[in-house]
Automatic annotation (TrEMBL):
Residues 11-44 form the Putative zinc-finger domain. It comes from the Bacteria. InterPro entries: Anit_sigma_mycothiol_RsrA, Znf_put. It comes from Nocardia fluminea. NCBIfam families: antisig_RsrA. This is Mycothiol system anti-sigma-R factor.
């Protein structure tokens, strides 16, 4: 273990946030924390590169297509339901 908490991060946590970083959906502090970890962790930077290539491929092959508004609304509803159920189960468990 090092004295730097960014280097001691669990690689699973880093890889879980890779898509947030790729989609520019994380704040600057999170981006910096992830980048610092990956700068010193070969497996994470390799996984990041693979995810980046997948994102690029998806963008090229599926870019410009938009989900119907009804589908997006149903997905939002299901996500909110899932979050609510998880919160209830977590607080009761």
């Amino acid at each position: 273990m090092s004295d730097d908490p960014d280097l001691d991060m669990d690689c699973t946590a880093v890889l879980a946030d890779v898509w947030l970083m790729l989609d520019n959906e994380c704040d600057q502090a999170t981006r910096q924390r992830l980048q610092e970890h990956m700068d010193h962790c070969s497996p994470c930077i390799e996984a990041y590169g693979i995810e980046e290539k997948i994102k690029g491929l998806l963008s090229r092959k599926c870019g410009g297509e938009h989900a119907p508004e009804g589908l997006r609304d149903r997905l939002k509803l299901e996500i909110h339901r899932s979050i609510s159920v998880t919160r209830i189960e977590t607080t009761e468990g």
